[in-house]
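Listing S7. Sequence submitted for prediction.
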Amino acid sequence: MRYSLSIGKIAGISVYLHWTFLILVGWIMMGTLQAGATWIDAMWSLLLLATIFLCITLHEVGHALMARRFGIATRDITLLPIGGLARMEALPEKPREELLVALAGPAVNLVIALILFPFVQRIDPNLAMSSIGAVNFVPALFGVNIWLALFNLIPAFPMDGGRVFRALLAFRTGYVRATRTAASLGQLLAMVFVFAGFALNPFLIFIGLFIFLGAQAEAGMVETRFALRDHTVKDVLMHEVPTLDDTASMRDAACRLLNSQNKNFLVLHEGQPVGILTRQDIITTLRTHGDKALVRDAIDTKLEYLNPGMPLDKAWSKMQSEHKPMMLVMDEGQIKGAVDEESIEELILIHTARSQHN
């Protein structure tokens, strides 16, 4: 994720800290000191915060390790002010697998709470961050882990509880319909969070917005995968690929962009492909280097190849994860053409129109 700092690896998975996390640290420090606490109290509060986010990281690692059992890799884990985000290469589509992956995270928090329980004598439900110290540090951490487990099991998709709800629905209704229902419930609960945030805690507003947008995005992603699942790369293959020579100027590239409907170009050097030039590359280079800049100085030279028989949903996922708006298609050592985002999006629109008609 952009604007994130790498802080290490756990179980072979890279962990990143998003820059917005610093806002949370500053907010807690300011709130603690304004409440009349000392700098020592503030340090205890920050130590608790760091420990909480270690528990959140382990929560996400729990998801990742369970997903790994089903052959699904996790790219990385990013810590945000509202929690952790594990980016998986794919999502489990079998209800049983998704159920186990979703429950693995809260289970980690319950295990941590179980380990801490023998050291807990009393839990103060009104404990504030400004009153953390050596005496109540462990009870506070115990309470937080219980809260994390229970809160994440609220059926607000795409939170863990929402994924559990979708998995249970999918046993009966199918994956796509279950996603629609879970996303609708998630967005309804998100609005409850937002309204509750105005009355109780502003932090709930951010959680509500995250849930609402997350439910919308994942529901759209599932609809896309469903539309593409019965197709292969061959179905959207462009046999005539727009090309540019690597010695052409940005003026030439801009003219090609304006005089055609093409947004992505295969760049050639002496007839051989050497990179991809996108519309955004053209605009950015014109802004920074002007008309006389050469195409070869603006291209993405890391070419990626697809097979004609590759399932289109897998190809789409690969293009999205690697941020490639166009990929070449190769078969038996020969380049057969290319696939770009626009051709896939057109197929999705056609599928959606047909399904609405039916």
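Caption to Listing S7: primary sequence and predicted structure tokens for the chain studied. The longest helix spans residues 39-69. The chain has eleven helices and ten strands.
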